[in-house]
Write a structure and sequence with these properties.
This protein has helices at residues 20-25, 30-34, 42-45, 70-79, 96-99, 119-134, 151-167, 177-185, 208-218, 234-237, 240-246, 253-264, 268-281; strands at 9-11, 37-39, 51-55, 66-67, 83-86, 104-106, 189-194, 202-207, 224-228. The chain is an alpha/beta fold and 282 residues long. The termini are far apart.
């Protein structure tokens, strides 16, 4: 309310979240609270947005663009008709599955000695930046980007790809299934080949968002082959010990295993055993 924002969406809130205590705590933002849109599913909540900025302060193992430069975010907000800023839960933040629907990951710069912000603080910082943006007088004409795929279309395409790959037993070995899915849920390079070896053969290559947009525009039909480009360095880049230590004992082992699993796709059992081993070594 202090920064002129009025549209708030909440996804899968806990039971009895809207009560006298939460309304009273909102001070003068009662109107915003009463007009909140509530969804059970993030895909549906974001379906009408053309650009989504996800916020996180931890390194993610996804092929997603990331930045801590709000000037870049500002330019994107200006040229997109409808932009959402996405925040995760207080304790665990956004999972990698949540991040698949975002266009970019934004991190608020902080001291390396303490890089974690409370959710309320992060929302306040971003809200103030948006307030400054809304009060700028834009004198030059701005061209609105018209070719961004909606999050509904992107989600539909990703689910289609995963379903086809599951039918072909692509996700093996089983312990790597979630990690492999997260690979695809990023913005990985992909090729869609229609009617291969035939007269009207057509190949579309690019990152997943680009290919999804092209398929939506072309309304492709016929036999389609999906080719995923390899990412051999990914597992080598993931250092579980480094990730575990970055949390600095903030969670119980079982809770931490789930959070890291959501972020990396590694098995919760593997992560849990690693946490216990590190505790015993220390």
């Amino acid at each position: 309310m202090h920064f002129g924002l009025k549209d708030l969406i909440v996804v899968s809130p806990r039971d009895n979240w809207l009560n006298n205590k939460s309304i009273n705590a909102a001070k003068k933002a009662t109107k915003i609270i009463k007009n909140i849109k509530v969804y059970d599913d993030l895909e549906i909540a974001l379906s009408n947005f053309s650009y989504v900025v996800a916020t996180t302060n931890r390194r993610r193992y996804l092929e997603k663009n990331s930045t801590n430069d709000f000037k870049f975010i500002k330019r994107k907000i200006i040229v997109n008709k409808k932009t959402a800023i996405l925040f995760g839960p207080e304790n665990s933040g956004l999972s990698n599955e949540d991040l698949r629907l975002s266009d970019i990951i934004f991190t608020i710069e902080t001291s390396s000695k303490s890089n974690s912000l409370n959710l309320s603080h992060a929302v306040t910082v971003l809200s103030h930046k948006l307030f400054e943006l809304n009060n700028l007088k834009i004198t030059n004409s701005i061209s609105i980007e018209k070719d961004n795929i909606s999050k509904y279309q992107l989600s539909k395409f990703l689910n289609y790809v995963i379903e086809k790959l599951e039918n072909k037993k692509f996700f093996t070995p089983s312990e790597k299934k979630e990690s492999m899915k997260i690979d695809i849920l990023g913005n990985r390079k992909i090729a869609i080949c229609r009617e291969m070896t035939k007269k009207f053969e057509e190949i579309i290559t690019g990152n997943i968002e680009y290919v999804a947009k092209e398929i939506e525009l072309k309304k492709l039909k016929g036999e389609i082959v999906i080719v995923l480009y390899s990412d051999k360095q990914k597992d080598e880049e993931i250092n579980l010990e480094e990730i575990i230590n970055s949390f600095k004992g903030e969670y119980r082992p079982s809770e931490l295993a789930k959070i890291i699993s959501d972020q990396t796709g590694f098995s919760k059992n593997i992560i849990y055993n690693k946490i216990i081993k590190l505790k015993e070594e220390n």
